[in-house]
Amino acid sequence: MKERQLAICDKDELYLERFQTYLLKKRLAGFEILAFSTVRQAVAASREEGFEILLVGENTYDTDVINVKAVKTFILKENGLSGIKGYTFISKYQSMEAVIGQVLEELAIDEGCGCAAIGSGVKARLTGFYSPDRHAGQSIAALCAAELLADAGKKVLYISLSPFSGFEELFGTKYEADLTDLVYFALKHPDKLFYKLEAVKRTAGGADYIPPALDYADLLDISEREWQDILEALMLEGEYTDIVLDLTECCRGFYHMLDRSDKLYILSDTQGERSKAVLNQFQNLLLSKEYGRIIEKCRVFNLCGGWEGCASDIGAMAITGLGEYMKGVMRDDE
Known about the structure:
single chain, alpha/beta, Rossmann fold, 2 domains, 39% helix
């Protein structure tokens, strides 16, 4: 499938270079990035095939912008004194991540803009992480695995279903939207899933991740069928080679997610009597529900000593001691 085109037009060449470098590094899904220093160049380039998105600096704008073929045009607001009307303004002087997030959010809610699937036709590999005895390291291990896969050249999406992730504090950030916002939007506008995903997702250690639910109760209202539809779309129509699921029973599709996973890593204190008893109960439950096949793809492991200290390197765990340890765990399954 031919990529859609996102064009930015700005006479500030330093800003243009920084913006283009950021977008190329971000690998904005399904978009080819084009840059122009004049409106005239953008007009000429759009004649053969129009742009999906056009961003024009406020001080670069001239009336020829109307001749640029673009589905959606945005003005990058600089001083707000230009008197330009008829276009959506987005502040130019904010983080580039925020600029792109606002652009894609606008596309997602615009009924006139469609969004095709962006995948290569190859289904993503689904890897699940779960701890029946509530091992505190489950989310750290799962995110570390996602970062290791990204470090190996995979295109990875990490999805935490944990009721309490602590990610805002660990990453030192605030989330304006989270996993449940993405799911609820996609259920109403399935054709816009990937615009919304691009607007919501963040990146850690080279892996994309969806901000976890800020209120776990929202997860309980999503049906098993709805979870199945979202996962299938991400696996079959998205750009990812690997999706890492950080699982809990908060989701009504819990057993389906276990069953759907290509590989399951079960985190358990293999030396503790209580942990072994909980693990046995979990496996017996699967057998009683005729999910014995799930047990066959489980890899039970425990974390190395000192893993807690790696939380301070949460965006760079691939190069920590935990990263080396997890690399060995995952290598055993290759």
